[in-house]
Every structure is written in structure tokens, then in C-alpha cells.
Specification:
This is Cytoplasmic protein. InterPro entries: TrcR. With 243 residues, the protein is mostly helical. Among the domains are: 77 residues, no CATH class; 80 residues, no CATH class. 47% of the residues lie in helices and 0% in strands. It contains 14 helices and no strands. It is globular, with a radius of gyration of 35 Å.
């Protein structure tokens, strides 16, 4: 089933402006029902501006009304001839003028939440230049103080499938370049929780972990002196001195 462009932003608009159920919105936008609920609660898509599907020729008002009257009704995407062949598009990515002002925000989002992506991958996803990406990474961009991280998929700068493919590729490249020691450090959550705690030496005897008794000393330790031995002091001639 075809999905609307800027699916997450469209879901934000439908949540704010209609009484459609979460499932109806999720099915229409290709999202999970819990994700739509998170949008309604304000936990998901924070800062994303709603994208009106009616004004953008993706949905009719009559279709929305039918969905509001019948919770079992599935919304149908309006046929848009201009969207045909979008999957086969090749060549440099073109960013509309209306979205170019939001492009630095999307770069900031990618740098913050997907640091494994290379500058080349980010440039290909949102259609920018490497110097711009580098300035945002180093926080030297002229407008860095006013920038907010926004999902590029919600802004329509790239598709979710493209972002997922880039993240998976970056993860494979990162794993391939890891050393053996770094791979050994990567444990699953289940393994790390089931592992036994490493024994620690008390602070009071720290540094004595290599200390050991010699054989003679061990034999002396085995011989516990009796009480009488403490009173049988050697005769050193003190009695003669007293006399």
C-alpha cells in the first residue's frame, strides 16, 4: 500500500485536527499504533510541524469524514500523478526552497542520534555539503544556537527506508573496522546481566594481593604457642643484680 509523503508530519496533523483512531492514522501513515499514541501524548515527533494531507492533495475531506464516522474504515491515499515514479528517481537530491531552511536541523538530528553515519552518507540523505556537516558536528555553524534537531524523514528530506539502509550500512562498516579487543567488549544485554560480578579486593588490603608466606613462616603459623610459654621468660641475671 502506498504511503503519504512526510508520513510522520501527516500523522501529527491528523492527530491534532481529526477524531480518527490511532489505528486508522497508523495504517494510513505506515506507522505503529503505539507511535501514533506517542505523538498524541507528546512523547514522539516533538517539534515536528503538522503536514496537511488535504491541502497537499493526498487525502480528501470526505475520506476523513468517512473515517471519523466509521472506526473500521481504512483511509485511502488520493491518487497523485506527480508522485508516480518517485521510487525510480535517480541523480542528485533536490531540496525545495521551502524546506532548505530546515535542512540544518535535520543534519543536527542525524549527527546527534546517528553519529555512526559518515559525512558522505548524511550529504546524500539530505542533499547538503560536507563543510556544512562538519561545522554542525563541531558546533561552529553560524546559527547553531537557534537550531533544533528534527527528523529528516518528518521533514520530507529523505525516506525512512533510505535512512534505515544508511544506518545499517554504517553499522556494518563500523563492525568490520573493529579490533578483536573491541569485539570482545560488545556483550548483549542478556549476557551482561547474567555475568557474575568481578570480585574486588578490600581497600584495606589493596596492594597485598601478591603477598604470600614462606614455608618456614607457614610452619610457624601452624604452631600456636600455649599460655605458659609467655611466662617462662629467659633468665638474664636480674636476680643477681637485686642481691
Amino acid at each position: 500500500m502506498a504511503k503519504p509523503i512526510m508520513a510522520k508530519a501527516t500523522a501529527v496533523w491528523l492527530v491534532d485536527n481529526t477524531t480518527l483512531s490511532f489505528k486508522q492514522i497508523a495504517d494510513f501513515c505506515g506507522l505503529h499504533e503505539l507511535e501514533v499514541q506517542g505523538i498524541a501524548d507528546g512523547d514522539v515527533a516533538g517539534g515536528v510541524r503538522g503536514f496537511d494531507p488535504v491541502a497537499n492533495n493526498q487525502l480528501t475531506a470526505e475520506e476523513i469524514k468517512a473515517g471519523e464516522d466509521n472506526p473500521l474504515h481504512k483511509l485511502k491515499l488520493k491518487f497523485n500523478a506527480a508522485a508516480q515514479g518517485e521510487e525510480k528517481r535517480r541523480g542528485p537530491r533536490y531540496t525545495p526552497l521551502s524546506k532548505r531552511q530546515d535542512r540544518p536541523n535535520s543534519i543536527l538530528w542525524l549527527v546527534k542520534f546517528h553519529p555512526e553515519l559518515s559525512d558522505g552518507q548524511i550529504a546524500k540523505l539530505v542533499g547538503t555539503t560536507k563543510p556544512t556537516i562538519q561545522s554542525i558536528r563541531e558546533r561552529t555553524h553560524w546559527n547553531i544556537a537557534n537550531m533544533q534537531p528534527i527528523d529528516p524523514v518528518a521533514l520530507g528530506l529523505c525516506k525512512q527506508t533510505e535512512l534505515d539502509a544508511a544506518v545499517q550500512k554504517a553499522a556494518k562498516n563500523r563492525e568490520a573496522n573493529m579490533t578483536d579487543d573491541e569485539r570482545r567488549k560488545l556483550l548483549s544485554t542478556e549476557d551482561s546481566l547474567s555475568a557474575e560480578a568481578e570480585p574486588r579486593i578490600p581497600t584495606a588490603i589493596s596492594g597485598l594481593e601478591g603477598f604470600s608466606l614462606s614455608r618456614d613462616e607457614e610452619e610457624k603459623e601452624d604452631k600456636v604457642p600455649d599460655a605458659d610459654s609467655f611466662f617462662n621468660l629467659p633468665d638474664n641475671g636480674d636476680e643477681d643484680d637485686d642481691e
